[in-house]
Design brief:
TIM Barrel, single chain, 6-stranded parallel sheet
Length: about 325
């Protein structure tokens, strides 16, 4: 079986991917609503530092791909992603979809479910704008609170239909870790199988029972804000991850750092994209994770999530 990732440089055969992936990152983004320019990764000002970090992680840890979940309304820049991928030597998977409601562009309110679905399918099949870059994942599709708003529910439904129509998988943004079960209900009701779904930011929700329930239904559980100590300690993240592993769901965990502000870059004194490899995974190994488990969670799981492949095929 040949399974491929859809990267910004074209299809990539997963059989050649031997190192870890970052399952939820941002390389270029603009979430600045207040004018403070903190929630920005600029394609000119910050891209050289981003590129340098990825290149260093490829050399030090074998970083094999980055899943870049900046979507419509988040300052997405496919041409900049293509440059970063080419210059760093790290493949990048670009995304399409819509973030949670405070960041919805006007097109969301102006479109019904069918129109939103068509917008995503068109982008997945023909490329983002005129760039020719094809999205390889739908995400990060957002909601906030325990139940998505009507507009967020419409986006989730449209995104699930587009995923089903195109064969892509879908990653969510569950604001502060809340609303994952409701997201999964909406997505599966729209026809998307749970094993094509990753529920985001679950490391911000200190509720192992919810994580077990999501995994038991077949969805991926993303512990994807590793190193963001302002939201949650890595000690808590590790405890939650170990709980999920102890419950028998190692094949449903995903890990990433969700670098989303330029102050998080290593060059600016932040934790950087490498925090997962340099800090968190050593702690996880000290807590008992062996090489095979680390490989499962950081390589096989994200590849299986993205492609829908069976474990044995990765």
């Amino acid at each position: 079986m040949h399974h491929h990732l859809r990267t910004v440089a074209g299809p990539l055969d997963v059989s050649g991917i031997r190192g870890p992936l970052l399952a939820h990152e941002h390389l270029v983004l603009d979430l600045d609503h207040a004018g403070d320019r903190a929630a920005v990764l600029d394609p000119v000002a910050h891209a050289p530092a981003v590129t340098e970090e990825l290149s260093a992680l490829r050399a030090a840890f074998g970083l094999s791909a980055v899943v870049e979940l900046t979507c419509r309304g988040m300052g997405r820049d496919p041409r900049a992603l293509a440059r970063i991928a080419a210059d760093s030597g790290v493949p990048v998977v670009a995304a399409t979809g819509w973030y949670y409601e405070p960041f919805h562009p006007a097109e969301v309110g102006a479109s019904g479910t069918a129109g939103l679905t068509d917008t995503l399918v068109r982008e997945i099949e023909h490329g983002i704008g005129t760039t020719g870059v094809l999205p390889g994942v739908i995400g990060e599709v957002g909601s906030h609170g325990d139940v998505p708003s009507p507009e967020e529910a419409r986006v989730l439904t449209a995104s699930a239909r587009a995923a089903t129509a195109t064969g892509l998988s879908l990653a969510t943004h569950a604001q502060l870790g809340r609303g994952g079960p409701a997201q999964l209900d909406i997505l599966t009701a729209a026809g998307l199988p749970p094993h094509r779904i990753s529920i985001g930011h679950q490391d911000l929700l200190d509720d192992p029972a919810t994580h077990r329930a999501l995994a038991a239904q077949g969805a991926y559980v993303a512990f994807d804000t590793v190193g963001k100590s302002g939201y949650q300690s890595d000690d808590t993240r590790l405890r939650l991850l170990l709980d999920l592993l102890d419950a028998g769901h190692a094949d449903r965990a995903l890990l990433s750092c969700d670098i989303s502000r330029h102050g998080y870059l290593a060059s600016e004194g932040g934790q950087g994209y490498g925090h997962l490899f340099g800090s968190f995974l050593p702690k996880a190994r000290a807590a008992g994770l062996d090489d095979d488990l680390v490989d499962l969670i950081t390589r096989r799981n994200p590849l299986r999530f993205l492609t829908g492949a069976d474990v044995e095929e990765i």
